[in-house]
């Protein structure tokens, strides 16, 4: 297993080892000692039927803020994290990692970051562990195509498939400042 830092401090790429032979493969996809600072309590699975489906950019406010460990079990996504920590040297910056079922690469998105993804293949299934349960009262988000962020999504704005909720999310400059850098 390999854990690689991204250009956003705290956001990590996790690459499990895959042991394969003529029967198929085996891989440990998670061990608590890989991310000892996190206590995952729930696991979620989403299916997106069409290429170009965008989910996000989502986060929850404290005390239900979530760390996430995201992987694809079928298909592929462009996975994105955005730094929401006011005062951070990387505030408003984003990082994107392609996650594919074939290589089991994962992305760890800590508290203080918004998370979203775009499907690259049909019938993509995304599995993610979270450190807090879903809280409708604390559910928040940032507009996926906020021009101030400049995220390079692999789909044209008019072709993106979104929920009504995600279409109405605020831009980062209009979002309540919930997270502070360093505490």
Keywords:
183 residues; mainly beta; Jelly Rolls; five-stranded antiparallel beta sheet; 2% helix; globular; RmlC_Cupin_sf; dTDP-4-dehydrorhamnose 3,5-epimerase
What features would you describe in this structure?
- It is a single chain.
- With 183 residues, this protein is mainly β.
- It has a single domain (2-180), classed as Jelly Rolls (Sandwich), CATH 2.60.120.
- Helices cover 2% and strands 41% of the residues.
- The chain has one helix and 15 strands; from the N terminus they run ββββββββββββββαβ.
- Strands 1-2-11-7-13-5 form a six-stranded antiparallel β-sheet, with no helix packed on it.
- A hairpin with a 6-residue loop joins β1 (2-5) and β2.
- Catalyzes the epimerization of the C3' and C5'positions of dTDP-6-deoxy-D-xylo-4-hexulose, forming dTDP-6-deoxy-L-lyxo-4-hexulose.
- This is dTDP-4-dehydrorhamnose 3,5-epimerase.
- It catalyses: dTDP-4-dehydro-6-deoxy-alpha-D-glucose = dTDP-4-dehydro-beta-L-rhamnose.
- Pathway: Carbohydrate biosynthesis; dTDP-L-rhamnose biosynthesis.
Chart the SSEs and their pairings.
Elements: E1 2-5, E2 12-15, E3 19-21, E4 24-26, E5 42-48, E6 54-60, E7 68-74, E8 76-83, E9 85-86, E10 94-100, E11 106-109, E12 113-119, E13 124-130, E14 139-141, H1 164-167, E15 179-180
Parallel strand pairs: 9-15
Antiparallel strand pairs: 1-2, 2-11, 3-4, 5-13, 6-12, 6-14, 7-11, 7-13, 8-10, 8-12
């Amino acid at each position: 297993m390999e854990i690689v830092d991204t250009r956003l401090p705290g956001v990590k790429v996790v690459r499990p080892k895959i042991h394969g032979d003529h029967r198929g493969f085996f891989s440990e996809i998670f061990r608590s000692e890989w991310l000892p600072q996190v206590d995952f309590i729930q696991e979620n699975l989403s299916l997106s039927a069409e290429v170009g489906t965008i989910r996000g950019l989502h986060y929850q406010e404290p005390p239900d803020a979530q760390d996430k460990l995201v992987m694809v079990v079928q298909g592929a996504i462009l996975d994105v994290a955005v730094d929401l920590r006011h005062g951070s040297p990387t505030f408003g910056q984003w990082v994107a990692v392609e996650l594919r079922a074939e290589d089991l690469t994962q992305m760890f998105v800590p508290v203080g970051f918004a998370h979203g993804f775009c499907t690259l293949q049909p019938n993509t299934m995304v599995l993610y562990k979270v450190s807090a349960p879903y809280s409708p009262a604390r559910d928040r988000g940032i507009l996926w195509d906020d021009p101030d962020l400049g995220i390079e999504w692999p789909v044209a704005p008019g072709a993106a498939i979104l929920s009504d909720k995600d279409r109405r999310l605020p831009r980062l400059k209009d979002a309540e400042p919930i997270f502070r850098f360093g505490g």
